[in-house]
Amino acid sequence: MKIEIWSDVACPWCYIGKRRFEAALAEFPHRDSVEVHWRSYQLDPSLPGHYDGTELDYLSTRKGMAPQQVSQMFDHVAAQAKGEGLDYRFDKVVVANSFTAHRLIHLAAAHGVQDAAKERLLSDHFEHGEDIGSREYLTALGGDLGLDAEDVAELFSTDKYADDVRSDFEEARALGISGVPFFVIDRKFGLSGAQPAETFTAALNQAWQETHPLVLVNTADGDSCGPDGCAV
Fold it and tell me: pLDDT tens-digit profile of 101-151?
């Protein structure tokens, strides 16, 4: 079973959704048969490489939200994150364009460490105040992931993986995805948002049953018990 997750590393609900999905997947009896693929999405592609201001400033000025409303939103999201064991620090978030970070995720996928890259980027952005648009940070992260230094350097000297990232954007539009996180199971089931773990569990079970239906064979003469008693 293939699960594709459209997500932006600058999206706070995407990290919460990742944790809730992981909780459901950990309890799924067929988890070893599940392939998870992270797909790129940008909430604000027009964001400059770096924004000179805080996350609160950014949402207030570029999104037209009142500062008090933004602060209340931060409190609500941070509380939800804490419930999943995450320690959000919106006061430390560095606002930066996530395009190159998405390219790094594609590079990591080519070397089998895509989930580790996604996890680090989300954690470093929301919990540790790292600059996800910084060459120095992304280079260090690539080293931590065991990626070849020359491959990581190519992200800053060429357009490598840029087309892959844009292809993810185009697929999202084709599927009608207008917000993230968005989970697609076998291109048949779609779940929008950071759903409760129970919702992910129900979706996983339903998708598995549809692709692996139970076939009953030769049961007509078998002895069994029912509401009215047992066969004699």
Answer: 999 999 999 999 999 999 999 999 999 999 999 999 999 999 999 999 999
| Cα torsion angle, 139, 140, 141, 143, sign | positive
The phi and psi torsions of 71 (rounded to 5 degrees) equal: -60, -40
Residue 128, CB-side half-sphere exposure with 13 Å CA sphere: 10
CATH of domain 2-211: 3.40.30.10
Please give the Cα distance from 187 to 211 (Å, whole number).
12
CB atoms within 10 A of CB 87: 11
* Token pair for 35: 């392939």
Q: Is 194 helix (H, G, I), strand (E, B) or coil?
A: coil
Cα separation, 119 vs 208, whole angstroms: 26
Q: What is the pLDDT of residues 42-96, one digit of tens each?
A: 999 999 888 889 999 999 988 788 999 999 999 999 999 999 999 999 999 999 9
In one-letter notation, the amino acid at residue 199 is T
